[in-house]
């Protein structure tokens, strides 16, 4: 089953510039031990700013005053200790013969990487101790940071997201695809850490098998060696494996002709890891696509399943104008059914949405006899509280425990408190946190899960 989608892998060599067919040859190459040059992305021509007419508005967004905030918080029951009794992870045991494996999915709160990076720090692990087993093809996607030193892309790449695609469309674990149709569209990846070192030994490029209706030519270069042209035939299984004798620093892909759709990358390393942490969060994402995933696709690319699956969804569900608690519960249950098909034995944690605030829109010019519009400062706080409660209840049906991010912020109204701290822990959009806010949240999360015990031995 695990080899279902990869019968015709090819080994690439970058020592020449001749064209080879993936189905016909296995080719190896040797790269040098000297560090490859750092990536310098091509300079893009600046686009002229569009001339826009000034907009006229009759409202202004205002934050609640300190007095309003104190009055609000004094009337709300706050239980910041809610998480201390939620998580009993006695079911989590570190494997003896391999590193512990965590898969993290979510929305913009975890896509930027600040939360997962602080998880690593809180576990007292060095970056060299942590590796990834799957890199989603979200290179260049706004709000996403991947475990790569640097990336460059250009030429017209576009994304397809699972959260707004047809249910019948099967995605890989990244729940996103990267498309290119333009000649010379390029993708450059630097796998080194912050120094010069790299332990990447090979990389599997997952190409969508239905994306090559015509013959496609793909240029591949490793560590700035001569580009190799790979031929991808229609109706073939065009997975590519890039191997090297020495660790790989940079890989460059270029679409020479045809079309290509990338489903992700599977790296292999020459050095051992203490933790495998794969972050596959995407801004604007919801959990809904999990109801339609193909578990065979997920299992086909993983030698070992995740020991812990983390879902950090809820903010985008709660922002829908027609949000309904019953419908959310049905969607969550369907998503967890899909998750359990893919990861039947994994421990599972549902991270509830953060607390969220709301600006007061006051009229600029008050008409005679008309009072300023009143607003509910806790509109989203109440919805997020309901979402967390639903996660706690339904999660138990699928052996998932729940961690309330909102409770970690002090409960309903915590977004305003975090905004007024010094330094601020909440962004001024009252939806996202600052880097410090995400770091503090991850510290509390690791403390609640007691994950440190897995790495203290």
Number of domains as seen in the coordinates? 2
Q: If you compute it from the alpha carbons, what radius of gyration comes out, rounded to the nearest whole angstrom?
A: 24 Å
Helix- and strand-based class?
A: alpha/beta
The chain-level mean pLDDT equals 83
Specify the number of helices: 10
Secondary-structure map with pairings?
Elements: E1 19-21, E2 59-62, H1 66-74, E3 100-106, H2 108-111, H3 114-122, E4 130-131, E5 150-154, E6 158-161, E7 176-180, E8 186-190, E9 200-207, E10 216-222, E11 228-232, E12 240-243, E13 250-257, E14 260-269, E15 275-279, H4 295-300, E16 308-312, H5 315-318, H6 325-342, E17 347-351, E18 360-363, H7 379-395, E19 400-403, H8 405-408, H9 414-419, H10 435-449
Helix pairs in contact: 3-10, 6-7
Question: Would you write up a description of this structure?
Answer:
- The protein is an alpha/beta fold.
- It has two domains: 1-30 and 149-263, Sandwich (Jelly Rolls), CATH 2.60.120; 60-125 and 274-457, Rossmann fold (3-Layer(aba) Sandwich).
- The chain is 20% helix and 22% strand.
- It contains ten helices and 19 strands.
- The strands form four sheets. It has a six-stranded mixed sheet, with no helix packed on it.
- Strand 10 and strand 11 form a beta hairpin.
- Helix 3 (114-122) packs across helix 10 (435-449).
- The longest helix has 18 residues, at 325-342.
- The protein starts with 18 loop residues before the first strand and ends in an 8-residue tail after the last helix.
- The relative contact order is 0.20.
